[in-house]
């Protein structure tokens, strides 16, 4: 864990992120355990918003909550377009998509073994 960031486990960070996404009515939330698969992060979370406005709002509120509750700063890419927003929280990477963009890129299929998708739904 980066010494400059508050001491929060990746599991606690994941729980806070999932709670924020639930509060903001994110849809089809999937969590993927990356431990042992990637050195980039411990977890990836993928979810959908119904519109570009909701996708951007989910990302912005997540960023604000993590800053306020945990003192964590996030890097955000794509919020202005609202089709696919990437939120890098360090140990957890969050992707918020519009449904048709999510379907096009199918990130879950790249990171999860076949048949594991249903068990990953948060």
Report the average pLDDT across residues: 88
Main sheet summary? 5 strands, mixed
Number of strands: 5
Summarize the amount of helix as a percent range: 40-55%
Computed Rg:
13 Å
Category by helix and strand content: alpha+beta
State the distance separating the first and last CA atoms.
24 Å
Could you give the order of the helices and strands?
HEEHEEEHHH
How much of the sequence lies in strands comes to 15-25%
Coarse shape: globular
| Number of continuous helical runs | 5
User: What strand order characterises the main sheet?
Assistant: 1-2-5-4-3
Q: Low-confidence stretches at least 5 residues in length (pLDDT < 50)?
A: none
Subunit structure: Interacts with ribosomal protein uL14 (rplN).
InterPro entries: Iojap/RsfS/C7orf30 (IPR004394), NT_sf (IPR043519)
Protein name: Ribosomal silencing factor RsfS
Main location: cytoplasm
Describe the structure.
40% of the residues lie in helices and 22% in strands. By secondary structure, the chain is an alpha+beta fold. It has a 5-stranded mixed β-sheet. α1 (10-23) packs across α2 (52-70). The chain is globular.
């Amino acid at each position: 864990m980066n010494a400059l960031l508050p001491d929060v486990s990746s599991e606690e960070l994941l729980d806070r992120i999932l709670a924020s996404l639930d509060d903001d009515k994110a849809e089809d939330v999937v969590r993927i355990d990356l431990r042992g698969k990637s050195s980039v992060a411990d977890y990836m979370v993928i979810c959908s918003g119904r519109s570009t406005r909701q996708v951007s709002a989910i990302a912005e509120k997540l960023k604000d909550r993590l800053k306020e509750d945990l003192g964590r700063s996030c890097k955000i890419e794509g919020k202005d377009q609202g089709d696919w927003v990437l939120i890098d929280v360090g140990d957890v990477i969050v992707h918020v998509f519009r449904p048709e963009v999510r379907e096009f890129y199918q990130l879950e299929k790249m990171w999860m073994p076949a048949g594991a998708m249903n068990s990953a739904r948060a």
